[in-house]
């Protein structure tokens, strides 16, 4: 007998994949919504590009037959797009794509899935240390992750007394393909960012998956911004 249902975006690698694996170990049914296929056995994949213009129609069509209002559902907004851009160079089309994946798609999924979420369900957002600060060279990502915090806080207020809670998990530097690609696999830079937290290492995706599970299954954290960054060192 399954525990409930996880619906996650970007469950193909990194934190998303680790989250799928963790929930499957806990015997949850899992639906992955992403461009790629999740390699974990037993996962139902909805293969879509969350930045496409007709995404609302596609998501409604793909999800409508799968949703059962009697199920406890954990909706995890994990998909993100990390690009190298700046105030001076950001392209308007790419900027829209980043915001479509990180801001618009979560809102659409909330509207589609929320009517089918039973009491005890949760909506979990994935933020970043860059949800509250900024660095040069990641303009669109920083803007998107700041917006993620606003999404969570607005979600908390609008959920009211439905007995569905929300939280935003903000990981620090995590050993994922997205981060490594962004750093061009430059080990000198990797070593430098390891020294930016109190434990001098990268976070493992499985660690964030456990934090997501905790937040999803503990309504007391409703509306919380949860830092999971090994103790960020400010310099």
Q: How would you describe what is shown here?
A:
- The structure is a single chain.
- The chain is of the alpha/beta class.
- Helix content is 38%, strand content 16%.
- It contains seven helices and seven strands; from the N terminus they run βαββαβαβαβαααβ.
- The protein has helices at residues 14-25, 55-63, 92-113, 139-159, 177-182, 187-194, 205-216; strands at 5-9, 29-34, 44-47, 73-77, 122-126, 165-171, 224-228.
- The chain has a seven-stranded parallel sheet with strand order 3-2-1-4-5-6-7, sandwiched between helices.
- Strand 5, helix 4 and strand 6 form a beta-alpha-beta unit.
- The chain is globular and about 50 Å long.
Instruction: Tell me about the largest β-sheet.
Output: 7 strands, parallel
Number of helices: 7
Strand arrangement within the widest β-sheet reads 3-2-1-4-5-6-7
Order of helices and strands: EHEEHEHEHEHHHE
- Indicate the radius of gyration in whole angstroms: 17 Å
Secondary structure: number of strands: 7
Q: What global shape is seen?
A: globular
Topology of this structure?
Elements: E1 5-9, H1 14-25, E2 29-34, E3 44-47, H2 55-63, E4 73-77, H3 92-113, E5 122-126, H4 139-159, E6 165-171, H5 177-182, H6 187-194, H7 205-216, E7 224-228
Parallel strand pairs: 1-2, 1-4, 2-3, 4-5, 5-6, 6-7
Helix pairs in contact: 1-7, 2-3, 3-4
Keywords, separated by commas or semicolons:
235 residues, alpha/beta, 7-stranded parallel beta sheet, 16% strand
Describe this structure in a few short sentences.
With 235 residues, this protein is of the alpha/beta class. The chain has helices at 14-25, 55-63, 92-113, 139-159, 177-182, 187-194, 205-216, and strands at residues 5-9, 29-34, 44-47, 73-77, 122-126, 165-171, 224-228.
């Amino acid at each position: 007998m399954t525990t409930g249902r996880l619906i996650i975006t970007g469950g193909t690698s990194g934190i998303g994949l680790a989250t799928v694996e963790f929930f499957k170990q806990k015997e949850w049914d899992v639906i992955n919504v992403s461009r790629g296929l999740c390699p974990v056995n037993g996962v139902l994949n909805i293969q879509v590009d969350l930045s496409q213009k007709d995404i609302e129609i596609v998501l409604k069509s793909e999800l409508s037959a799968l949703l059962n209002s009697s199920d406890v559902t954990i909706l995890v907004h994990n998909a993100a797009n990390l690009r190298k851009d700046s105030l001076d160079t950001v392209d308007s089309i790419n900027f829209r794509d980043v915001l479509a994946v990180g801001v618009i798609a979560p809102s659409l999924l909330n509207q589609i899935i929320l009517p089918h979420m039973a009491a005890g369900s949760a909506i979990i957002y994935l933020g970043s240390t860059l949800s509250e600060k900024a660095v040069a060279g990641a303009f669109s990502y920083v803007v998107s992750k700041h917006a993620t915090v606003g999404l969570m806080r607005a979600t908390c207020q609008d959920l009211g007394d439905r007995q569905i809670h929300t939280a935003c998990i903000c990981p620090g530097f995590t050993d994922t393909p997205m981060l490594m690609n962004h750093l061009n696999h430059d080990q000198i830079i990797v070593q430098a960012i390891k020294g930016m937290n109190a434990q001098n290492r990268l976070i493992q995706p499985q660690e964030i998956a456990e934090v997501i599970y905790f937040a999803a299954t503990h309504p007391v954290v409703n509306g919380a911004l949860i830092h999971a960054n090994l103790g960020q060192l400010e310099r």
